[in-house]
Amino acid sequence: MTSTLATEPVLTLAGLTVGYGGVPAVRDLDLSVRPGEIMALLGPNGAGKTTTLLAAVGALPAIAGTVQALGAPLDKRVERNARRGVTLVPDNRGVFHKLTVADNLRIARRKGGTDLADVFEYFPKLKGMQGQRCGNLSGGEQQMLALAKALLPSPKVLLIDELSMGLSPIAVKDLLPRLRLIADEQRMAVVLVEQHIDLALAIADSAMVLHHGRVALSGSAELLRSQRANVEAAYFGRVADV
Amino acid sequence: MSVESSSSLLETRRLSVRYGGVVANDDVALTVEAGEIVGLIGPNGAGKTTFVDAVTGFTRSTGEVRLAGQRIDGYSSHRRRSGGMARTWQAGELFGDLTVAQNLAVALQRPGIRALLADIITGSAPPVEAIDTALEMVGLADVADRRPSELALGQQKMVGVARALVGGTRVVLLDEPAAGLDTHESQHFGEELRRIAAAGIGVLLIDHDMSLVLDVCDRLYVLDFGKVIATGKPQQIRDDPRVVAAYLGSPDVEPSDVLDSQLTSGTTSPQKGR
Amino acid sequence: MSEFLQFVFLGLSVGAVYSVFATSLVGVYAATGIINFAQGSIALWAVYTVAALRTDGTLVLPIGDVSLGSVASPTAMLPAVLLGVATAAAWALIAHLVVFRPLRRAPALANVAASVGLMLFLQALVSLRFNTESLAALPILPEGTITVAGAVVNVSDLLMAGTAIAVGALLWAYFGLTTRGVATRAASEDELAARLSGYAPDRLAATVWTISGAASGLIVVLGAYTIGLDPVSYAYYVVPAMAVALVGRLASFAVASVSGLVLGSFQAVLLWANTLDWWPAWAQAGLGDAMPFVVVVVALFLLGGKIPSRGSLGELKMPAVTVPRIRPIPTIAVVAAAALAILLTADSWRFGIVTSMILSLIALSLVLLTGYLGQISLASIAFAGTAGFALSKLTVNWGVPFPFSIVLSALVATALGVVVGVPALRIRGAQLAVVTLAAAFAIQNFVFNNPALTPYEGHQISEPTLLGMNLSVRRGTELTTVAFSMTVLVVVTVMTLLVMRLMAGATGRAFLAVRSNERAAASVGINVAATKLLGFALSAFLAGVGGCLIGYSRGQLSAASFTVVVGLTMLAIAYCGGITSVSGALIAGFIGPLGVFYVFLNQTLDLGQYYQVIAAGGLLLMAITNPIGAAGANAELANKLKTRVRTARLARVAENGTTSLEMSSVKVGTHVG
Ligand SMILES: Nc1ncnc2c1ncn2[C@@H]1O[C@H](COP(=O)(O)OP(=O)(O)OP(=O)(O)O)[C@@H](O)[C@H]1O
Ligand SMILES: Nc1ncnc2c1ncn2[C@@H]1O[C@H](COP(=O)(O)OP(=O)(O)OP(=O)(O)O)[C@@H](O)[C@H]1O
Ligand SMILES: [Mg+2]
Ligand SMILES: [Mg+2]
Q: Where is the composition biased (Polar residues) (chain B) (predicted)?
């Protein structure tokens, strides 16, 4: 365990139940992350990962339970939370197709955030594409832009839905360690949803497996790495003795 | 229009696409035989989606596209589909206003004067059986009456695949169908793909999920900067140094190892315990 | 030559109004995706406010007024202008806060309906609140002249043009150069993503609404002395302004700004051309209105792509659809009720019922084309009108007998529908709405209102007879005969049933597929272009039949039945009734102009002259409270009940701790370590 875990959580979901049209998709979920911690939120398709992240930024109202962020209850307005430093890379990427790459980045910048030059270092490909309309980019290039946009303001809590989706293996291998470094250096708390269990566990401090909207397994990434069979089992909603 | 006797199901010759100054596809030659699963991989922005767009008529291209020997470049997209060439989209592109079952129904019943008369005179119920079969194949039978927006991402992808498989498909081009699928779903999907190919359908698979691609594909093509830089059996491709450099990254290194090497090389970040 | 130049400059004042309206429209569209039909009405309020202040110092408010002076000492010019501009800005802001913000997640069409409602409402309110008969505009800009290349030019015209260009430049700079402006464009594309970047889309939009309202108010206030003041025209200046905005694809401020000025000059030059001997008589009316639209359509058509390209977000959000099922008992009940109503009423009430039935057929044509195929069309009433005019020619000049006359006339409308549908192959969404509006405007001014094409005695229509039976609407003192009413009932019923079959079948599903995603539709083998033309053809046919029935019900056709305003009202009413369902069309027919609801207001409540305010206000209210339309609201309610049942069932399943998918027992929430 790293020393970072000693500090107070920056995001806490407590007894959270959330869903669509009154039908819960996630029930009674407890989750917390601390500065500098990377948490992998895992689970099969339809488990409720996206739903959880949406609730954690205020984009979906909770049916029951609470969300605390940066020492205060979450605001109902997503933009307030974003300005306070709690934001999300949604699974549709949330890039603006009609704007150029440069404009996409421009509106994401904040005082006290990361330098544009640094972000271009993370995603060198984007540097040469600044004049392109974002809608013309390839899927993976859009994913890079989405991540670049999210990193620019240096949020305190960054939620990333489907981190590696659309990225080539080499890009993923490059990105993950970088994310680890950023989390450490900026003390950024990161919750990432990822389908590649091993990739996610490799850089995470902690992990949680959802199944049918409930926590099937959670613990330190270290432990889960050593108990891969249990993780697999959790994907089917089973938890063997641990 | 020349029909060659011993022709591939899908074949492109010197296929090129230009967007302004960018050459997105550069003289791509590729074949897919009936019953074969062919992988198309390459780094982000290599031109894979562009290739699918060109083959299915959604972007302007030069060069030849042949379906069972017959030249179809110059045909409109819908005509290519009627000829048996189907595709999925990287971003899903489902019909948000239709239920899952109706999404498939439109691929089975095309509009026109004949359909119009049928609607009025006999009424045209959607062909339930074909739809159910296709939905069962991708495990979506129980969400047939839902709208796509109510489904999780992985399920949406599978609706797209099912939609591409109904209505007399001979060759199907799948653009990252497994992106967003969890490991099990992805394995399951691989098995489905084999079954689809076994039925005689030619499959072109684009995906970044290497365990899936290396597992199910009979042959692979690797694109980089719009050009085919390698082609061959999965085993060959995996070891090809050019492919490793451009796309795969070092094969033996797991991300955790990369992590370690980067972290120890001169950064001050705290070591991750393991 | 100098005469020509003189007219070019004379047109600049009107051109400046077009120009500022157009750039304001582009701004609002960039910020919200809304095409604001009320832009002109908002400015109209400002100009009357200034006129009232300058006459006797009264600041007229929507309710009540404040006296800031007297006839002897009216408000000084500068404060009056500032106050006037402020009212326009305030109206725009109110429109945003009260009407459009609540609708931000509603289908795009809800916004079209609401902004049409707002346009009609404000215009009616101006007439009610201001003494429009006696108020006049006083000069604000200097009245001097200068001579340019032999032409005498008003300084005020030049100043107007200068203001217009300055407004355009300002808006361009805001959207192109400031981060806030860029974020505004972003927020209109993806609200959640913008929020996630820390922007409040509402505030960004509010800024643009306010600026655009103020700008539109200002230019009209400045130009009113030159252009003239009446309670109608400025509201409709928005139509040419839209065409102008379209030349720049609703995206370019520079193009919109300059094209507005050019259009103003062009129309002035046409006026001059009318005085020349060699200018043909048929071209003396409406050409100024028709020509620019042809140019716009051609320009757009050349620019547009057949299938939207990657990354273009052409698809409009549309209300959900309830696929119709023909159930015998409700169908028979509705038809029987209509028949009974016809038999039990007489004269104006029965006429109201007949009108409502016909209107519901026209609304149905909109349900098919707009609700199902997703092509927003404001030209449907023009299709109806064209069929009506064809009917007049066919029955009077060629003696074509009754049922064939309708079919042939409707086919003429169908042909026109296909022609108007051609731009739709490459122009989509809100832009298409404007193009069809332009087409309707061109047809209205160039065909319906063209004296050269209208016979002296008006457009007579011969009485319909069938197998010796007289089906005409009037007999002796009877205003509306049973025979005619029943004929209408039969025609409308048959057409409606046929359309319901279509909607429930493969054609309906294909329409919905095209409506929701054209690229995907092409990728499943649908010929998108042919499907769209089919939709336009069918819809125009339905509207054409409706137009013929209107013709027969009046015995003589007047252009007033088929104006652009009627078309706008029809679309808005059809939307509020429920644009995606047949029952919505019936509701629309009920509340449509001169229908049952009108008769009720007129006869029972004696409020006929308030029909426009009540209808427009009602429209607005309905659009805001019921963004999916009345019929949709009912369906929604039914859905909610269904969901509640499902929720209850799911909850029960969850309590038992098992779902059908899980065979083994589940241990939930077990923590590791
Ligand atoms: N808008 C919606 N309306 C109704 N139900 C929804 C909606 N979005 C998601 N659901 C349902 O809620 C459940 C959880 O969905 P969610 O998107 O959170 O899953 P997920 O874990 O993110 O899955 P994936 O890995 O496929 O993205 C699913 O059963 C899904 O069908
Ligand atoms: N309309 C366009 N105009 C300009 N450039 C374009 C256009 N469409 C695509 N491109 C560029 O062409 C290149 C190839 O894009 P393509 O989408 O084919 O890549 P891809 O191989 O599918 O990548 P990914 O794996 O990220 O999906 C990209 O660099 C993209 O930015
Ligand atoms: Mg998800
Ligand atoms: Mg791609």
A: 259-274
Summarised one tens digit per residue, pLDDT across range C336-384 is 888 888 777 777 788 888 888 999 999 999 889 988 888 888 888 889 9
Element (DSSP H or E) covering residue B23: strand B22-32
Q: Which residues of chain A have a CB within 8 Å of the CB of C29? A: none
Ligand 3: centre distance to CA B149 (Å): 12
Backbone angles phi, psi at C671, to 5 degrees: -95, 150
- Distance from B126 to chain C by nearest Cα, in Å? 7
CB distance C22 to C259 below 8 Å: yes
CATH architecture of A11-93+156-235: 3-Layer(aba) Sandwich (3.40)
Q: What is the pLDDT of residues A102-151, one digit of tens each?
A: 999 999 998 888 999 999 998 988 999 999 999 889 989 999 999 999 99
| The model's pTM | 0.83
Cα separation, C270 vs C263, in Å, equals 10
Q: Where are the domains of chain C?
A: 2-275, 328-563
pLDDT lower than 50: segments of chain C:
313-314, 650-651, 653-673
Looking at residue C549, the DSSP 8-state letter turns out to be H
B112: tokens are 């026109």
Answer yes or no: do A82 and C193 touch at CB < 8 A. no
Phi, psi of C168 (to 5 degrees): -60, -45
Q: Give per-residue pLDDT as tens, C420-433.
A: 888 788 777 777 88
CA A54 to ligand 3 center in whole angstroms = 10
* Angle (nearest 5°) at CA C59 between C53 and C60: 115
Exposed / middle / buried, residue C116 (Cβ in 10 Å: 0-12, 13-18, 19+): buried
> Do the beta carbons of residue C314 and residue C308 sit within 8 Å?
yes
Q: Where are the domains of chain B?
A: 1-84+170-274, 97-169
Q: Which chains touch A (3 or more CB pairs under 8 A)?
A: B, C
Closest to B255 (Cα-Cα) out of A90, A121, A154, A167? A167
Number of neighbours of residue C428 by Cβ within 10 angstroms:
24
Residues 6 or more apart whose Cβ sits within 8 Å of residue C544: C383, C384, C386, C387, C409, C410, C411, C412, C413, C414, C417
Alpha-carbon distance values, B27 to B30, B47, B87, B230 (Å) = 10, 12, 21, 14
Please tell me if residue C659 touches chain A, with a CB cutoff of 8 Å: yes
CA separation for the pair C156, C140 (Å, rounded): 9
Interface of C with A in 152-181 (CB under 8 A): 179
Q: Which residue has the tokens 């990728």?
A: C523
- Torsions phi, psi of C563, nearest 5? -75, 165
Eight-state DSSP code of residue C470: E
CA distances from B142 to B132, B136, B156, C536, C660 (A): 10, 9, 13, 37, 11
d(CA B205, CA B87): 10
DSSP state of C274: H
Assembly ipTM = 0.92
Among the CATH numbers 1.10.3470, 3.30.70, 1.10.10, 3.40.1350, which is that of C2-275? Answer: 1.10.3470
B1-84+170-274 fold:
Rossmann fold (3.40.50)
Give the start-to-end residue ranges of the domains of chain A: 11-93+156-235
